[in-house]
Design goal:
Elements lengths: L1 H29 L3 H9 L8 E6 L1 H10 L10 E4 L8 E5 L2 E4 L2 H16 L7
Helix pairs in contact: 1-4
Length: 125
């Protein structure tokens, strides 16, 4: 019975994650300003002064370029449209390398942690 309950919990988490992924993808298509939030999240890992180029899906490039100054990104940081990225895709090029701040990458990290937690493994560090 405990095994069945654990399997049911994993199934519920997987279903919830699938629904959340669809909602997030839809939200990015409806509100291109979501990209600004992705850059803010990237700034938690990278100092703004180190940012040089932000590559994103072409549909997000213009709204992103218009909003960077509002979140403390220094002038001179270029926003480059990159058709190889999906909507919600965002790569920050810095003086020390690249940071993948894509919505999908962040979602995968959260998903992995949740699935490990319900599997009894807890998050890996």
């Amino acid at each position: 019975q405990a095994r069945l309950r654990a399997e049911a919990e994993r199934d519920v988490v997987r279903i919830a994650l699938a629904i959340a992924r669809k909602i997030l993808r839809r939200e990015v298509r409806i509100d291109p300003h979501v990209a600004i939030g992705l850059v803010k999240a990237a700034m938690e890992a990278v100092a703004a002064r180190e940012m040089r180029i932000v590559r994103t899906h072409p549909a997000l490039a213009q709204p992103l370029a218009a909003g960077l100054s509002q979140i403390g990104v220094p002038e001179g940081v270029q926003v480059v449209p990159d058709a190889s990225l999906e909507p919600g895709g965002l790569i920050v090029e810095t003086t020390r390398g690249e940071v993948d701040a894509s919505l999908e990458t962040q979602f995968e990290e959260i998903s992995t942690g949740l699935l490990q937690a319900v599997s009894g493994g807890g998050p890996r560090r």
